[in-house]
Amino acid sequence: MKKTLLFMLLPLLCILLQAQETVVIDGVTFSVDKKTLIKYSADKADEEYVVPEGTEIISEYAFGHNRHLQVLTLPLSLKEIGDNALAGTGLKTIIWNTYPDVIGDWIWGFPAYASNLSSFLTLGNSTNCISVDGVLFSKDKKKLLGFPPTKVGNRLSGKYEIPEGTEVITKQAFACADIAIVILPSTINRIEEDAFSVRWLIPTGDDTIEELIEVFCKTIIPPEIIGNPFINPEYIALYVPEESADIYRNTEYWKRFRTINGKSTDSGIQQMKQSSNLESWIENDILIYRM
Predict the structure, then answer these.
(1) Do 105 and 162 fall within a single domain?
(2) How far apart are CA 38 and CA 28, in angstroms?
(3) Residues 40 and 165 occupy one common structural domain
């Protein structure tokens, strides 16, 4: 009888213990010290929310499934954003007071899903980041930190030219972006993991196009590559300064692009040969490949 009673009380004890470790403020769950935002209620109907100063961590999936919130302001005190923390929401604008030291994966969304984000803004007292025409950069404008997915809003032919002076494209900076073409400046020297993980395009059935269509790179020396920033370079046309074309064709990773300045690469040809069901078609004057 005592064992049965203890077994029945255990779930209640767990709930009570959890309640002691968290606090709910206007539909938002925080750790008891209010340093971690754990969950923003999916039912909370406010269109704007300012994360309180003192908050240091936004937990993974914290804002997921809330389709009401459109404008989110992040605090100066923020140090970490967890995986998918801002994904799966109706957010249109994020206002950054600081860019955290720790950034999780796919913080505003996974490429398989569309996003509503159209602008990243900053305030005058932002410590380490700045908004340039709605795109988030480091304060010195040398690192591109985040590109709002629907800023251009055209996955078939949309184009974005990264400003001169930019040196680094950070991890997943273009996650979910609705663009097809990117122009890299002559100053770029490093491109990080999944940087151009643009939104997947699904023309028919279950087939997907996960990569950009064209990349224009103005730098003479091929930039350093971290991981696999272009996802499927074998299906992307690359254009570089003509005097550097052979250098790109003989540089690891860059030589994997389908064509360089219109000339097919060995890696691109080999990849196409391995696919027995590769199809292509013209749409808006752009050659599109589908596996």
Answers:
(1) no
(2) 8
(3) no
- In this structure, the number of other CB atoms found within 10 A of the CB of residue 277 comes to 7
Torsion of the alpha carbons at 268, 204, 173 and 195, rounded to the nearest 10: -20
DSSP string computed for 100-127: -SEE-TTTT--TTS-----EEEE-TT-S
Residue 212 CA: distances (Å) to CA of 104, 144, 160: 23, 18, 11
Name the residue type at position 93. Answer: T
Q: Looking at residue 225, which CATH number applies to its domain?
A: 3.80.10
Residues 6+ positions from 100 with CB-CB distance below 8 Å: 78, 79, 80, 81
How many domains does one find in the chain?
Answer: 2
Does residue 74 lie within any of the structural domains? yes
Give the domain extent around 290: 141-291
Residue 121 lies in a domain: no
Q: What is the pLDDT of residues 180-207, one digit of tens each?
A: 999 999 999 999 999 999 999 877 666 7
CB 217 within 8 A of CB 238: yes
- 217 domain-assigned: yes
d(CA 264, CA 183): 20
Measured CA to CA, the distance from residue 280 to residue 84 in angstroms comes to 33
Of the candidates 149, 273, 162, 147, the one whose C-alpha atom is nearest the C-alpha of residue 215 is 162
In a domain, 116, yes or no: no
Written as six digits, the tokens of 18 are 């959890």
- pTM for this prediction: 0.85
> Is beta strand 237-239 parallel, antiparallel or unpaired with respect to 159-161?
unpaired
For the stretch 237-286, pLDDT in tens is 999 999 999 999 999 999 999 999 999 987 655 554 444 444 444 444 44
Write the CA distances from 183 to 160, 163, 231, 238, 256, integer angstroms: 6, 9, 17, 10, 18
